[in-house]
Amino acid sequence: MGDSSSISSMRGVPMTPSAWALASLWAEIWDAPRFRSKAALTREALAPLLKIAASCVAGIQQHVLSSQGGSVDAKAAVPPQGASRDLLVALLDGDASFLGEASEPSKNPVSFVKALARSAFMTGDGDYPEGVAEASIDELLSKHCSSQLQQAELLLQDPSAALQNALEGARSSVQEIIATPPASGDLAGVANRHLLIQRLERVVEDCRSMAANSEVGPGSDADVGSSASSELTEDEPPLKRTKSQVAANLKVQKVKQHHENLQKEVFDLSRTTSALTKHEIPEDEIEAVQAELKTVEEARKKARNFGEDLLEDMLALDNLSGLAEDDRTTRKTVIAGIDGLLADVDTAKSRLANMHKQLEDKLKTLEEKKQSKADAEEPLPRADDGPTPRQLQQSALQPPPPAKDVWQKLRLPLRFYSTEAADHYLISATVPGLDLDDLKLELGSSNTLLVEGLKLPSQPAASSMRKKIGQKIKQLAQRSPKQSAKLADAIAQVAADAYVELGQGEFGRFAETFQLPEDVNTDAIDASYKDGVLRIVLPKVPRSRPPAYPVHNAGRFLGARGPRRRNAHPGLGSAAAAPWGGSLFGGHDDFFTW
């Protein structure tokens, strides 16, 4: 490596709206309480590779279909995420079998990116749909994603020499600016210099944050994928705006205004994040750590909201077609600005996640010290007060499975996708383990469709959870006689709550309401479930001319989904103790409960 061109190319990974959406979906996996501090791989460690893989998937999605000569039925297409999310969850749980030889992403980043990209085209059962072959996907990756794979390869190399060159170049350029002060009355020149100062201060803060962490920290993953989305080509519009172009112009201007409003909000978020990294709190005060943790959680909620808003705006612009010339120019500029803000929000989210983990670890240590002190002051229980620790350990090695109603109470935030064809719409979701007896489709009075179902763990997944719970209970029982007695008194509840902790975000009941387009033939709606993929076909009523409403691309929901829960996000709720008073795998997050 050794030259600055390699570093600049790290900023060249194209992140289209669909790529951002997929990367965001993958990143949400770490929001489950059990992965916040116990995952085999951290979100920060994989963030650059997730963005590269998402860029690859977005870059070859259309090619996967066209390369098969149209042999893949649109109604049987796999949702954009495919089986990738489930395979990533398995990886974080320690099962890297789907990666083959690339079991360590840090040593085989290219192989990891390819494996993850392939899994995005698999069904929920982990197989390729008819008409899609692994060899064809590998060929498309080599042909259309060579630059992204080069970025993954660069992550193995030390960028110190290029960083030194960049530093020297920046120092020289700043010295030139200092040597030529702005003329009297040059307000723009003064303002631009203040903006440069702010950017340099941000660089200094990022450097300090990197130096303070053993791993490469927050600013790194923001560099990957911070380039503007690829330009969308349009047919030349007529000289005067048509009726549809006037409507599109209003949407472009609305998104442009929202983007301008968010710029200050994102800047304030970055300043808040920087202030929190510098804030010192007493090392031995539980209340102070709890208060700081609450502040960080609030900042993470803001970052999540900003990210969702920006992604929605980008997708809204991505859906517009047939724009007038000046609207196309405006859209291109706004998309580039949104892309930059998404990178800033990504950086803030990464830094806040690091702080959140450090504070949680510190709080856990303080609480354990407090509990140990309390245990030492209490008399030991008599031998006849209950089962011995060894007896408890033996009985807990095979914890009973939970009843079905436990999963009914667990909320599963399932991601749906929609596409439009000439004669139908398609809603699909990857959901292996769907209980068909509990699948329900219900038409509402306002032309809405409710899709509700229950995802249950497979037998291998249930066995794996049972083994983890048994091992964890055994470890806790060995700590103290008091802990053993506490577990013995509530062993059934402990096991049931542990299943819920492990199942958050992976199993449970989902319910989504879709606002249907006006031309849907509601009498002919059909649902199918095959290879772990739920597909709902909405046939169209034949029309003499094309519909006036916009076409929804893959990755968008059909119509409105109702108000968003602004203060309820996975990973941002309180990781509270289970009803029995403790937790085995990170606690309960109220986002995952109905």
Keywords:
four-stranded antiparallel beta sheet, disordered N terminus, globular, 18 helices, 594 residues
Question: Any chance you could write out the topology, listing elements then pairs?
Answer:
Blueprint: H1 4-9, H2 17-27, H3 43-66, H4 84-92, H5 109-119, H6 134-144, H7 146-154, H8 160-179, H9 187-212, H10 219-223, H11 243-278, H12 286-318, H13 325-377, H14 389-396, H15 404-408, E1 417-420, E2 424-430, E3 440-443, E4 448-455, H16 459-477, H17 481-489, H18 491-503, E5 508-515, E6 526-530, E7 533-539, E8 575-576, E9 588-589
Antiparallel strand pairs: 1-2, 2-7, 3-4, 4-5, 6-7, 8-9
Helix pairs in contact: 2-3, 2-12, 3-5, 3-6, 3-7, 5-7, 11-12, 11-13, 12-13, 14-16, 16-18
Summary, kept brief:
With 594 residues, this protein is of the alpha+beta class. Helices cover 52% and strands 8% of the residues.
